């Protein structure tokens, strides 16, 4: 149950970033950035609730069919990877691109 609550928290955090992401990337696309690249980055940012939901679904299936420990790991693993990649992306644009989403594109 604790793993399910953690996945729900990641899903809520991911859903809360949707408005900010849409506003931030609409300005970047209007300024002449590569539309396809910005669309990929935007979809990556918006994927949080879906990743958490998929991890929750896979985790519960593995929990009931195979081993409980593996099921708990599958609930945590996909949202954790998504959050780590998101933090890495935010660090990269702040360190190398001076906060610009387009980064010279």
Main attributes?
membrane; transmembrane; 5 helices; mainly alpha; 105 residues; 83% helix; elongated
Describe the structure.
Helix content is 83%, strand content 0%. α1 packs antiparallel against α4 (48-65), α1 (2-16) runs parallel beside α5 and α4 packs antiparallel against α5. The protein has 105 residues and is mostly helical. It is elongated, with a radius of gyration of 16 Å. It starts with a helix and ends in a 9-residue tail after the last helix. It has helices spanning 2-16, 18-30, 35-46, 48-65, 68-96. The model has no long low-confidence stretch (mean pLDDT 78). It contains 5 helices and no strands. The protein has one domain (1-27, 34-97). Keywords: Membrane, Transmembrane, Transmembrane helix. The chain crosses the membrane at residues 41-64, 71-92.
Tell me briefly what this model is.
Keywords: Membrane, Transmembrane, Transmembrane helix. This protein is 83% helix and 0% strand.
What's the N-to-C terminus distance?
Answer: 44 Å
What series of H and E elements makes up the topology? HHHHH
Tell me the major beta sheet.
none
Rg, Cα atoms, Å? 16 Å
Q: What count of structural domains?
A: 1
Overall average pLDDT? 78
What is the SS-derived class? mainly alpha
Number of helices: 5
| Helix percent band | over 70%
Roughly what fraction of the amino acids lie in strands? under 5%
The dominant shape is elongated
Strand tally, please? 0
Low-confidence stretches: none
Write the topology of this structure.
Blueprint: H1 2-16, H2 18-30, H3 35-46, H4 48-65, H5 68-96
Helix pairs in contact: 1-4, 1-5, 2-3, 4-5
Transmembrane segments: 41-64, 71-92
Keywords: Membrane, Transmembrane, Transmembrane helix
């Amino acid at each position: 149950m604790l793993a399910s609550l953690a996945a729900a928290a990641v899903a809520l955090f991911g859903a809360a970033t949707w408005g900010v992401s849409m506003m931030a990337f609409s300005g970047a696309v209007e300024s002449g950035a590569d539309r396809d690249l910005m669309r990929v980055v935007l979809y990556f940012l918006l994927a949080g609730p879906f990743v958490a939901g998929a991890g929750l679904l896979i985790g519960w299936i593995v929990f009931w069919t195979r081993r409980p420990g593996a099921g708990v790991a599958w609930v945590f693993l996909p949202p954790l990877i998504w959050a780590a990649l998101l933090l890495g992306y935010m660090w990269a644009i702040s360190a190398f691109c001076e906060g610009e989403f387009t980064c010279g594109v």
